[in-house]
């Protein structure tokens, strides 16, 4: 008889299996502790019974989604995220539903939320080497998305999770679209991460993700986003003017990269491949992160 293993969270010991099934149901899973609470429901640690594979099960209430007219957005999120396969993009293995709920079967991110991890750092900011390694992972993942005409549009610490080795996992494709998008942006929440073309309601393309990478790089290194103000109209004006101020502790290399990402005109922003070749990134890129980035594996096929 097989002994029942406790539902442990060490996903480095995950069985190497393919989690594929077109007819999932709750019967396929043992449910563990809650991992977090979202706007539309809760996320639980879960184990697929046959394979013992650990996942995160996100449970969304249909009634709440309907109330906020989010069904369309969720459908798009599922359609986009379930087709992406990159080490720094959170996998979505599948979904199922019952009368009242929708369940998303997600890759379990063992180190939780980037936002909380950032806030726990001394002075609420990361070191330059750590930030450069995060930026390289994000640039690689976004290159992969953009090659498939997927724009994320909402890269910020709240939408990033951390895997068991501390690697970045881009999650929450709720605002992502297939490029190009000429739709006007519905503004909600904070303006801090929005590119000038988005705050002005102009059409935009995948280069909005370059802007948000610049904002994220600044927030990682400084502890707050560059145009943060109490009043939204002030933030709005500072974004449109690219009114950028750097604290004294930032290196020339970090400032150079941020300045090259935060360009008002999308066509002036440094492309992702060039970001990966930027001297500040290369100076800090660890062998471990480099060895996991698909772009570097393609560029150096013979490197062990
Ligand atoms: P969300 O509804 O996506 O905002 O998720 C709510 C919270 O659940 C997040 O803030 C995380 O703390 C946690 N969470 C969501 N997805 C995962 C995951 N795939 N792995 C680990 N924790 C997660």
TrEMBL record:
Pfam families: Pkinase (PF00069). ATP binds at residues 39, 58, 107-109, 158-159, 172. GO terms for cellular component: centrosome; chromosome passenger complex; kinetochore; midbody; nucleus; spindle microtubule; spindle midzone; spindle pole. Belongs to the protein kinase superfamily. Ser/Thr protein kinase family. Aurora subfamily. It is found in: Midbody. It is an enzyme of class 2 (transferase). InterPro entries: Aur-like (IPR030616), Kinase-like_dom_sf (IPR011009), Prot_kinase_dom (IPR000719), Protein_kinase_ATP_BS (IPR017441), Ser/Thr_kinase_AS (IPR008271). The active site is at residue 154. Its EC number is 2.7.11.1. One of its GO terms (biological process) is chromatin organization. The keyword Membrane does not apply. This is Aurora kinase.
């Amino acid at each position: 008889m097989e002994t029942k293993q406790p539902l442990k969270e060490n996903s480095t010991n995950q069985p190497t299996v393919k989690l594929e099934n077109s007819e999932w149901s709750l019967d396929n899973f043992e449910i563990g502790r809650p991992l977090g609470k979202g706007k539309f429901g809760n996320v639980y640690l879960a184990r697929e019974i046959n394979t013992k594979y650990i996942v995160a099960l996100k449970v969304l209430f249909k009634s709440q989604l309907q109330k906020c007219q989010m069904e369309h957005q969720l459908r798009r999120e599922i359609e986009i995220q379930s087709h992406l396969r990159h080490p720094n993009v959170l996998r979505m293995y599948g979904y199922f539903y019952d009368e009242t709920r929708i369940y998303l079967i997600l890759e379990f991110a063992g180190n939780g939320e980037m936002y909380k991890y950032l806030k726990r750092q001394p002075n609420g900011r990361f070191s330059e080497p750590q930030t450069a390694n995060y930026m390289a992972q994000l640039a690689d993942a976004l290159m992969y998305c953009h090659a498939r005409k997927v724009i994320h549009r909402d890269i910020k610490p709240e939408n990033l999770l951390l895997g068991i080795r501390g690697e970045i996992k881009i999650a929450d494709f709720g605002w992502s679209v297939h490029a190009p998008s000429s739709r006007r942006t519905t503004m909600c929440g904070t303006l801090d991460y929005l590119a000038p073309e988005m705050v002005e309601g102009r059409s935009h393309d995948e280069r909005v993700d370059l802007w948000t990478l610049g904002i994220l790089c600044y927030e990682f290194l400084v502890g707050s986003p560059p145009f943060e103000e109490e009043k939204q109209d002030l933030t709005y004006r500072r974004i449109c003017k690219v009114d950028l101020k750097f604290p004294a502790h930032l290196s020339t290399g970090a400032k150079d990269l941020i300045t090259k990402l935060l360009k008002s005109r999308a066509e002036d922003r440094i492309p992702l491949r060039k970001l990966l070749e930027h001297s500040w990134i290369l100076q800090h890129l660890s062998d471990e992160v480099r060895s996991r980035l698909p772009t570097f594996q393609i560029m150096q096929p013979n490197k062990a």
